[in-house]
Amino acid sequence: MPHRIAVLALDGLLPFELGIPQRIFGRSLGSEPRNEGRKLYEVVTCSVRPPGPVRTDADFTITVERGPETLATADTVVIPASYELGPVYTEGRLTDELAAAFAHIRPGTRMVSICTGSYVLAAAGYLNGRPATTHWWHADHFQQLFPEVQVDPDVLFIDDGDVLTSAGVAAGIDLCLHIVRRDHGASVANDVARRTVVPPHRDGGQAQYIQRPVPETQFATTTSARTWALGRLERPILLRDMARQESMSVRTFTRRFREEVGVSPVQWLTLQRVERARQLLESTDLSIDQVARDAGFGTPTSLRQHLQAALGVSPTVYRRTFRAGRA
Known about the structure:
The protein is 42% helix and 13% strand. By secondary structure, the protein is of the alpha/beta class. The chain starts with a strand and ends with a helix.
């Protein structure tokens, strides 16, 4: 049976964020012989009340056909943002409706929030003593309201095992793709990302807030350099070589790269090589030495150091864990 994801629609919800789980999880298809082409997740939407209308922050309402009892059937519960959280936002406590709805959730259910949905998780006690994030605009208020939560306002998302939280809006896409990657590997997540036309991987530790998130209008970009680099990750790539692809000075290239991508060229290269290593570890039987060379890390020691920093595990453990989880 597909993994069942219940999305909890609250009054004042943001339609964009409500649609993220369906768009990412609902389009995730199996790539292995035993499940090739099959849907890996079943995504259902429910309300804290019996079936009926739910207000959005736009000029329309939506009709939700499932009530809170649906939460009892979920393997994962996703709570998108809402602008009408009432005492959850002002006092840090659940409403009677929310408390009754949460009583349906089975122990061990994976809990996920997008943006201010983290307020609901915190008010329900899921974040006590745990790291979490939310939209940077609300981070100070969130920390004051829930002092027992370890708030990190600077990251896109936090994976704390069975409880995951994300920053605002598009960071919800990053988190959902991360969950697909964690559940089914990089190949499936990359396929969903390609069809959704979004970057396949933005690391959770990437900063939420870029001082200049939209670059000034310009004719020159760094797209060609990135395409060029992705085609030769297994070889040494110097910053000046990437800059030369765009006929820019290193200084100008570095500045424009950060404006467009949000991280430095060196950080981006490392992320791409980690992603390449993950794909090779998941989908091939290449030796660790060969994976290190093909991913551009050169040596097994360098591969281990970077994978440990990014994922907290060694290449051998990552491969064994990934394959054991899909046996």
